[in-house]
Amino acid sequence: MKRFLGFVKKEFFHIFRDYRTMIVLFGLPVIQVLIFGYAINTDLKDAHVAILDNSKDQMTRQITQKIVSSGYFMLGENLNSTADIEKSFRSGKIKEVIIFKENFARDYLKDGKAKIQLIADASDPNNANLIVNYTLAIINNYQMSLMKEFKIPFQITPEVRMRYNPELKSVFMFVPGIITILLMLVCAMMTSISIAREKEMGTMEILLVSPLKPLQILAGKVIPYVLLSFVNAITIILMGKWVFGMPVTGSYLLLLGVSILFIITALSLGIFISTVANNQMTAMFISLVGLFLPTILLSGFIFPIENMPVPLQILSYIVPAKWFIIVIKSIMLKGLGVTYIWKELCVLFGMAVFFILISMRKFKIRLE
Amino acid sequence: MQAVVVNNIDKTYGKVKALTDISFAVEKGELFGIIGPDGAGKTSLFRILTTLLLPSKGSAIVEGFDVVKDYKQIRKIVGYMPGRFSLYQDLSVEENLEFFATIFGTTIEENYELVKDIYTQIEPFKTRPAGKLSGGMKQKLALCCAMIHKPVILFLDEPTTGVDAVSRKEFWEMLIRLKKSGITILVSTPYMDEASLCDRVALIQNGKMLAIDKPDNIAKTFDKKLFAVKSGNNYTLLNLLKDFAKTDSVYPFGEYLHFSPSGNDFQRTELLEFLSSKGCEDVEINTQEPTIEDCFMNLMNNNS
User: Fold this and answer.
1) Is the domain of A207 the same as that of A244?
2) Are B238 and B99 in the same domain?
3) For labelling, which of A46, A187, B20, B143 has a CA lying 20 to 30 Å from the CA of A58?
4) In the 8-state DSSP scheme, what is residue A92?
């Protein structure tokens, strides 16, 4: 046991003395959370619209007022003719142009029909969709309020509720995603690199010619990273909560517990990689291509798995991150207990055991 | 019981044959040198004996344990210093030593006596990272680390390669002191002048053993005449000697050229005449007692 602790101590020295490792371990989580939180924001806020009001009556003014004061939009400019539309889009700032037809209010009151045209800048399709939908919603809303005044007998009022994320904040999506990615990165990549470094520097040669057992060497390499990753997970959860108001509806204890399970799974993958890679470059390359990309693309973090082609859906089953994201979302957003997520936990546990066993078998007790 | 017994070991890497039919034995408490040029197979042999490689053929016993079957026992009792500097560069001198003491289940204090002579020399730098030490100090630290667990037998793979002449001398003085404390030491080196410091040496080339004996005995096996030749311009002299009809071998040796003639009827005057006919006058010729290096050069020439 004393031998083992000596080994762990040495490993901590390596980590704390290498400033690059320190940056990856402690700088990266904070930076990533902030970047994702502020920059990669899919919520609509202050989108610039231009308005071409050919009618200029009370109704169009009311609608314009509603749109501009909604908080989602900002009045970029008032246009005077259709010729200006192209120009305002070209400026790049205007994302949508709203055009009211002549005699808007008169037509509406007389015929019960009036026309608005929405033109959106679809060079960013998702955003254009979002903008148009938000605008439509505001116009519909206005229409409803008119109907109330005129007392139309029949009407359907849908009441929509967005569960678990009522304000549809994208923060709620990325905090679980970031925890997953960072734990994967730190655990798998850093351990595989640190084991590969022993091989590269020739120190593995001396470690082998010592009474240390393979399990002691591997566990000694891994334990510092378990502790540091755990600190990382807590940091991200707290940052999500305090900086972006991401709640944890479920049990904190359970959340930390499953994080440890995922950390162990990721570490087992890292160890596995290190048994294949003989130098740090290879270890890093395998980690990035084999773990990092699938974790981002196939885990459901950014792209919904249900919309993928079937082969990729099947592939996603072997990505540990997919299971962890399901688990962590269930706990953080839905507040579910262990009875609802035990299947996913079993999968993660199974993966960890599988990779540890393979690595133990593949661990070379000699140089060849 | 002998400390090391090697029986007919072969080692092949794919198609390359690194060791061919190597057999020798090392007595307990002996300082045994394995001398050979780069690529002779020294490191392969050391790695087999320290259980890091499996022999392709043959067997080896270290302190009564088989290197294949009982590798775990061997790993507890040997001290190994690889040819490449293999300590943790980001750990300080003291931390390295402490780490290696801990993983062998001991402490620096417990075996301090053993490494004291060497360690006191690097102790002034004990807080310096091992990567920032000079070549000689690195080797001294590596030797300390290999010995801190009081091994029964030490394997030192080219400990003096890349080390300056003074440090080399100091290093060998340490080995000789260590030997007195009863530890068996196997040391490999490409420097033939270090051979005479060993109790016994094995000469190895291209994976084959050329000779195993005491350094003096090996020197005695040199069965030809040997002369040390010198002139104002040794380079011209060397080329001329290579053209000389009765030359068996000639190679530079310090400020002299060691020259051995073929046949027993060689007379100095023949050579002097030949040289003066080529315009080389101020030549000095002395008889030379064969050294182990002469033997080794001779053996290598015969072998290749």
Assistant:
1) yes
2) no
3) A46
4) S
Q: Which residues of B touch A3 (CB under 8 A)?
A: 102-105
**Tens of pLDDT, residue by residue, chain A (368 residues):** 888 999 999 999 999 998 888 888 888 888 888 887 777 666 677 888 999 988 888 888 988 998 888 888 888 888 888 888 888 888 888 889 999 888 888 888 888 788 889 998 888 888 888 888 888 888 888 888 877 766 666 666 667 676 776 666 666 777 888 888 888 887 888 889 999 999 999 899 999 999 998 888 988 998 999 898 899 889 888 888 888 878 888 888 999 999 999 999 999 999 999 888 889 999 999 998 888 888 888 888 878 888 888 998 998 999 999 999 999 988 988 888 888 899 999 999 999 999 999 988 888 888 87
The answer to whether B152 contacts chain A (CB < 8 Å) is no
Last residue of a domain, one of A150, A179, A199: A150
Helix, strand, coil abundance in chain A, percent, nearest 5: 70, 5, 25
**Residue A222 lies inside a defined structural domain of this protein:** yes
Interface contact B104-A210, CB threshold 8 A: yes
Domain span holding position B112: 4-220
Could you say which of B71, B86, B105 has the minimum Cβ distance to residue A203? B86
Q: Are B90 and B47 in a shared domain?
A: yes
Residue of A nearest to B151 (CA): A210
Identify whether residues A26 and A110 lie together within a single domain. no
Asked if A6 lies within 8 A of B51 by C-beta distance, the reply is no
d(C-alpha A59, C-alpha A61), whole Å: 5
- In this structure, the answer to whether residues A198 and A236 fall within a common structural domain is yes
Q: Among all chains, which residue has been given the structure tokens 């950014």?
A: A302
User: How many domains does chain A fold into?
Assistant: 2
Backbone angles phi, psi at B267, to 5 degrees: -120, 145
The closest alpha carbon to A249, from A346, A195, A330, belongs to A330
Query: Does the distance separating the beta carbons of A201 and B99 come in below 8 Å?
Result: no
Rounded to a whole number, what is the distance in Å from the CA of A181 to chain B's nearest CA? Answer: 29
B47 contacts A3? CB cut-off 8 A: no
Q: What SS3 class is residue B76?
A: helix
Tell whether B191 and B258 lie within a shared domain.
no
Please tell me the distance from the alpha carbon of residue B186 to that of residue B24, in angstroms, as a whole number.
12
- In a mutagenesis test of the B interface, which of A209, A215, A367, A368 is the best target, namely the one with the most B β-carbons within 10 Å? A209
Calculate how close chain A gets to B103, using CA atoms only, in Å. Answer: 5
CB contact under 8 Å between A366 and B54, yes or no, is: yes
SS3 state at A67? helix
The reply to whether A132 falls in a domain is yes
